[in-house]
Amino acid sequence: MATARAMLERRRSSRVVSCIPVNVRSKPHEGQPVQAPAEAVAVSRCGALLRVPLSPALGSRIEVRHEISHETQEFRVVRISPGEDGLYELGVEMLCPGHNFWGIPLPGERRTG
User: Fold this and answer.
1) Are the C-beta atoms of residues 22 and 40 closer than 8 Å to each other?
2) At 14, which helix (H) or strand (E)?
3) β-pairing verdict for 88-94 and 47-52
4) Which of 26, 73, 85, 96 matches a 20 to 30 Å C-alpha distance to 60?
5) What residues contact 5, with CB distance under 8 A and at least 6 apart?
6) What is the pLDDT of residues 1-13, one digit of tens each?
7) Helix-strand-coil percent breakdown of the chain, rounded to 5?
8) Structural element, H or E, at residue 99
9) Domain 14-94 falls in which CATH fold?
C-alpha cells in the first residue's frame, strides 16, 4: 500500500472538500450500464473522491454527470474503498482535464473578471 507521502507526491493538484451531487454511470464488461446517484466529497482539477452505492472495477472508466451544470466527464477509477452506510469511496482521475468541471474555486486557479 502506498504511503500518504507517496500519494501526495503523485497527486497532480490540491483537493477541495465539497458536497457536489453527481450521477455515476459504469459500463460493466457484461450486461447493461449501471447508473446511480452519488456525491463528490473532495475535488481537484484532475480528479475527485466520490461516495457511490456501486463498486466498479479498479482501472475501469466511468461517466460522471455534474447534477448542477448537467455536464458529463469521463473518469478512470484509481482507488476503491468500502465506506460508511454501504457506500464505496472511489478515487477517480479525469481522463481529459481542461476547464473546471466542478464549477467551484480550486487552489492555484486564476480568476478572471
Assistant:
1) yes
2) none
3) antiparallel
4) 85
5) none
6) 444 444 444 555 6
7) 5, 45, 50
8) none
9) Thrombin, subunit H (2.40.10)
Length of the chain: 113
Cell digits of residue 88: 464505496
Distance between CA 52 and CA 82 in Å, rounded? 10
Surface-to-core class of residue 25, CB atoms within 10 Å of its CB (0-12 exposed, 13-18 middle, 19+ buried) = middle
Of the candidates 33, 47, 53, the one whose C-alpha atom is nearest the C-alpha of residue 96 is: 47
Compute φ and ψ for 81, nearest 5 degrees: -135, 140
H or E element that contains 35? strand 34-43
Lowest model confidence (mean pLDDT) among 33-37, 54-58, 77-81, 106-110: 106-110
Domain limits, the chain: 14-94
**Which cell goes with 9?**
507526491
For residue 101, the tally of other CB atoms under 10 A from its CB is 23
47, 89 contact by CB (below 8 A) = no
